[in-house]
């Protein structure tokens, strides 16, 4: 299967730089071994039992919890203890939360309850999950890199600080892929995270731990990051709402790997939630420059924003693309249920009064190439240097040979990326970067200033663990909008009737129009078209 994929891929531009003799040989050998190793488990569906959820604080939105605490209908301590208990219940099956601060969180919740009313904040006493790659004092700060094992945070990520300043209480941090650069959350520091809808399946990456535990009701929301779909892919696989903001809206300070230059705009932190109504307030809290990357994180990204409640959704121009990289042998065929979900979204928007048109987008064929070229051109260092973590540079070839014997510090995904990073000829990079600028103009022009795209997030539901070692180009539908710097909101649209796995789509707008995608998500949620659904128990 791997040889076939590589042969087919050699027929398109992307593999002009991937398919060197060295890459083909190593990928074939390593993928064959890793495919067997990662997929020898049970084929039987294995959902996680979330327990009794009716009228529970565990299913409430951040907004609802804040209101309940404010009115005295519950207390922060009760809410915090409830989420901690849920994490302890489900995490043994998910391995989603890899570090916690439960004792400190309970103390903070008790203090929050004792605070006078005039000192209370908008989200006073509401729990929160953060991604492990965000620095937080006293918490592990490894990004899944063995060479950082034992590293403890000293500073505080500005987005997390802003959340705490608005009353949120951090419970713990979620697992991720090695150095945040793969579509499955597995590494050699913490191991692999599982999907609550079926623990034999991928929860997505790189923010899979956060999404898995939020979907399993271990937290009402999480702050995640996204440079190629790392918020939206896990949101898709775990049936959640996930927003990737306009480029430059949110700072990346105190994250690992550190980002520099225009990558500050491509990589964006954002909210992952079970409820659409939480997207906008959280985005508003975490956005804005922090005085560090002033050239790339500016108020310009948000100067057009307005409250989604003031958006007349029925007046939106909606264009729907059913395929990205149409005809490519490298992308899995779209699942019929994902297409049906997109049709439900189109029909709902049409019934609201929107101008909806499904169009054949024939200019996205090089989307993955463009993302790889633009991101690679903006990176100041190759991925093998990132994996080396300021120590002796690793030899990706040698590390791959060590993998079958379990003696490498790194994952196959990380080493595969390190091997191919930097292979694209500079002439091709320059050409594709130019094509990317043209693509951005075309995508924005086709929807205009008051429009949104309805687009696939991914072609299928969550696959079995390790599947994306072969089909990594499936991430194209999310990754392309990072380098386009366009805001993108994944919305969950129910469960597949046979596999009981989440399906969904993403909404995309012009740069600076985050409020349009979130307004549409909120309206679709009110109409019960976009919604989180708990896992269906196994028969």
Describe this structure in words.
- The protein has 539 residues and is α/β, with parallel strands linked by helices.
- The protein has 19 helices and 13 strands.
- The strands form 2 sheets. It has an 11-stranded mixed sheet, sandwiched between helices.
- Helix 3 runs antiparallel to helix 16.
- The protein starts with a helix and ends in a 13-residue tail after the last helix.
- Mean pLDDT is 92; it is low at 1-12 and 15-26.
Keywords:
539 residues, alpha/beta, eleven-stranded mixed beta sheet, two-stranded antiparallel ribbon, disordered N terminus
Write the layout of secondary structure elements.
Layout: H1 2-9, H2 15-18, H3 21-38, H4 62-71, H5 76-94, E1 97-100, H6 102-114, E2 127-131, H7 158-165, E3 169-174, E4 186-187, E5 191-192, H8 208-215, E6 221-226, H9 232-238, E7 241-244, H10 263-266, E8 268-273, H11 279-286, E9 317-320, H12 336-352, E10 355-358, H13 367-378, H14 383-388, H15 396-402, H16 412-420, H17 426-447, E11 451-456, H18 476-483, E12 488-495, E13 502-509, H19 514-526
Parallel strand pairs: 2-3, 2-6, 9-10, 9-11
Antiparallel strand pairs: 1-3, 4-5, 6-8, 7-8, 7-12, 11-13, 12-13
Helix pairs in contact: 3-16, 5-6, 8-9, 13-17, 13-18, 15-16
């Amino acid at each position: 299967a791997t040889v076939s994929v590589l042969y087919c891929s050699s027929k398109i531009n992307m593999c002009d730089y991937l398919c060197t003799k060295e890459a083909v040989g190593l990928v074939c050998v390593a993928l064959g071994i890793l495919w067997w190793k990662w997929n020898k488990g049970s084929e039987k569906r294995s959902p996680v039992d979330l327990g009794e959820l009716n009228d529970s604080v565990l299913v409430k939105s951040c907004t609802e919890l804040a209101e309940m605490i404010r009115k005295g209908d519950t207390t922060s301590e009760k809410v915090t203890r409830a989420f901690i208990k849920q994490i302890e219940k489900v995490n043994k099956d998910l391995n989603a939360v890899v570090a916690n601060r439960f004792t400190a969180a309970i103390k903070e919740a008790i203090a929050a309850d004792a605070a006078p009313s005039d000192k209370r904040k908008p989200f006073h006493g509401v729990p929160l999950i953060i991604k492990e790659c965000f620095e937080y004092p006293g918490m592990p700060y490894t990004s899944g890199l063995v060479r950082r094992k034992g590293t403890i945070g000293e500073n505080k990520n500005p987005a997390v600080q802003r959340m705490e300043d608005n009353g949120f209480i951090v419970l713990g941090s979620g697992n991720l892929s090695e150095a945040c650069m793969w579509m499955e959350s597995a590494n050699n520091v913490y191991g692999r995270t599982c999907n609550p809808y079926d623990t034999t399946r991928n929860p997505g990456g790189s923010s899979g731990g956060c999404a898995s535990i939020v979907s399993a009701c271990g937290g009402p929301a999480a702050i995640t990051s996204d440079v190629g779909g790392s918020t939206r892919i896990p949101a898709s696989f775990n049936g959640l709402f996930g927003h990737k903001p306009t480029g430059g809206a949110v700072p990346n300070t105190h994250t690992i790997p550190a980002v520099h230059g225009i990558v500050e705009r491509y990589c964006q932190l954002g909210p992952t939630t079970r409820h659409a109504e939480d997207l906008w307030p959280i985005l508003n809290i975490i956005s804005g420059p922090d005085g560090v990357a002033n050239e790339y994180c500016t108020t310009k990204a948000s100067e057009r924003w307005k409250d989604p409640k003031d958006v007349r959704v029925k007046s939106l121009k909606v264009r729907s693309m059913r395929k990205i990289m149409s005809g490519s042998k490298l992308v899995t065929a779209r699942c019929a249920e994902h297409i049906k979900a997109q049709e439900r979204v189109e029909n709902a928007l049409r019934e609201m009064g929107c101008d909806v048109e499904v169009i054949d987008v024939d200019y996205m064929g090089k989307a993955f190439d463009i993302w790889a070229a633009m991101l690679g051109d903006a990176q100041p260092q190759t991925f093998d240097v990132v994996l080396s973590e300021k120590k002796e540079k690793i030899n990706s070839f040698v590390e791959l040979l060590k993998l079958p014997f379990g003696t490498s510090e790194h994952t196959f995904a990380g080493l595969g990326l390190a091997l191919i990073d930097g292979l694209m000829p500079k002439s091709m990079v320059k050409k594709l970067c130019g094509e990317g600028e043209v693509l951005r103009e075309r995508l924005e022009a086709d929807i205009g200033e008051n429009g949104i795209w309805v687009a696939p997030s991914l072609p299928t539901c969550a696959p079995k663990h390790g599947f994306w070692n072969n089909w990594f180009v499936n991430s194209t539908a999310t990754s392309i909008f990072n380098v386009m710097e366009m805001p993108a909101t994944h919305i969950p649209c129910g469960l597949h009737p046979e596999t009981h796995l989440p399906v969904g789509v993403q909404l995309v707008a012009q740069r600076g129009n985050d409020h349009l995608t979130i307004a549409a998500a909120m309206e679709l949620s009110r109409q019960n078209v976009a919604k989180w659904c708990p896992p269906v128990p196994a028969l």
